[in-house]
Structures are given as C-alpha cells and as structure tokens.
Specification:
The chain is about 40% helix and about 25% strand. The protein is built from ten helices and seven strands. The longest helix is centred in the last third of the chain and has 18 residues, at about 215-235. The radius of gyration is 19 Å and the shape is globular.
Length: about 260
C-alpha cells in the first residue's frame, strides 16, 4: 500500500490546520526560494504560494500519487517525487517547510542542522510533527500487530516512525545553528463523524500504513476489525455520534 492522496484529503481541513498555524509563526520576510518537503497533495504548498506571492515555491514528496494530486491542484508549481532522506540540494532557501513528514525520518540530531545549513541568512526551517506514538491510537496499532497471526510480518512496522523528542531536545539541537528557535506543542481535539470508524479512517491515511502494507487483503480486513473494536473502547462516542480525537503535535520554527 502506497500513500493515497484520496484517503489523506478525506480529512483535509483538519490536516491543513497545523500547516496554517506553522506558517503563521514564520518571521516576516521577502522570501524568494521556498520548498515544501513532504508536500502531500499540495494543501500545504497552496498555503505557501498564497503567503509568499513573490517566491518560487516547489514541492517534494516520496509518493507519486501525492505528487500527481499536487500537480492537478497547483499546475503552475513544480513538484517532484523524491526521497527526502536523500535530498541533497544545497539551496539557499528562504523557507524550508516540513509539515508532518520528518517523523518518518531518523536521526533528527543530524537531520535538522543539515536542513538549517540549506537556509539563506535569515531563512527559516518550519517543522510540524505528530507526537502520537504514546497515544492509545498508536499503542493499539502496536498491540494488535504483536498479538495477531501476522506478528512476524509486522515485527518491524513500528520502526518506520521516529520517536519525537522533548521540546528542550530540539531547542538544544538547533540553538547553536540558529539566531532564533521557537518550539511549542499543541494538542488538537478533532471531532470526527462516525464514532470510532472515523478514527480508523483517519489513520488509514497515515499511521496505519506501515501496519497494513505488509498484509494481504484478508489480513488487512481482520487487522482493521480488531483495531476498530479496540478504538471503540479507547475513544467513547459522544451523544451526537461523533468522537473527539486528541492529536498532539510539536512545532519548530528555526531561523538562521
């Protein structure tokens, strides 16, 4: 299973809100070169195009499906399919925007300074990462993977995500490379229609991917049935039939 733009944009408003909040925290500048790493279907890139009208804005994503959707959305913007972990452009960039992508890459202590090195003086690295690995939603993914008949197939599924560090750790990593580092953590509470099934649909477009990809169709259905049952117990349905999904995220704006 590859990334699905259609599945991802089923919750586009909720997924785009952190991009807006991150963009609003970038210090004012006359940006000329802006790049959106992990641009997805172009929802975050569209914000950048409107916010920096005089800049050349480009997008990169590892998913061909996402890049195709982004090109349809923004035909005048250049998008490319690329592995961000092997991205070696030197820049300089005025803004490097990385919304909900760097949690899939390891070794942040090396990665983040290397991204700052690609900035022009006064440029900003803007990062948002879901901090969800210790939430019931993700703990249950791991529990079901370990306890089911697919345990051997999914033994490495949890390793695809990098543990998000404390804010103080990221501040320490970046401070010696930057003139200003702004770090904060926000927990959104997303109301999702359909009760627990809404949560399952949400994570089918993101966190569940490493657990579903190694399975065949019958196994995926069985896994998702068990996951839904567990989610129903962990996230009670409200009187109106919806459910609130607490979703913590960490934000960083590091200015060179």
């Amino acid at each position: 299973m590859s990334w699905s733009a259609q599945q991802y944009v089923a919750f586009e408003e909720e997924r785009t809100r952190p991009s807006r909040d991150l963009l609003a925290a970038i210090p004012p500048m006359q940006a000329r070169q802006v790049i959106d790493l992990g641009c997805g279907p172009g929802n975050s890139t569209e914000l950048l195009v409107h916010h920096f009208p005089d800049a050349t804005v480009r997008g990169l994503d590892s998913s061909a499906d996402m890049v195709e959707a982004a090109r349809k959305r923004l035909p005048n913007v250049t998008f490319a399919t690329a592995d961000i972990g092997r991205w070696h452009e030197s820049g300089p960039f005025d803004v490097i925007f990385a919304n909900a992508v760097l949690q899939w890459l390891p070794d942040h202590a090396t990665l983040l300074p290397s991204l700052v090195d690609k900035l022009a003086p006064g440029g900003s690295l803007a990062i948002q990462m879901p901090d969800t690995l210790h939430q019931p939603s993700h703990r249950l993914m791991r529990d079901i993977a370990a306890d089911g008949p697919w345990a051997s197939q999914l033994a490495g599924a949890a390793d695809s995500r990098t543990e998000v560090e404390e804010a103080s750790t990221y501040y320490s990593i970046l401070k010696s490379h930057c003139s200003r580092v702004d770090v904060w953590r926000t927990t959104y509470h997303h109301p999702l229609a359909g009760g627990a099934s809404g949560i399952v649909e949400w994570f089918k477009g993101s966190g569940l991917r490493p657990f579903l990809e190694p399975l065949d169709a019958a196994q995926r259905e069985q896994y998702l049935e068990q996951y839904l049952e567990a989610i129903e117990k962990a996230y009670p349905t409200l009187d109106d039939g919806s459910v609130l999904l607490p979703f913590p995220r960490i934000f960083i704006v590091a200015t060179r």
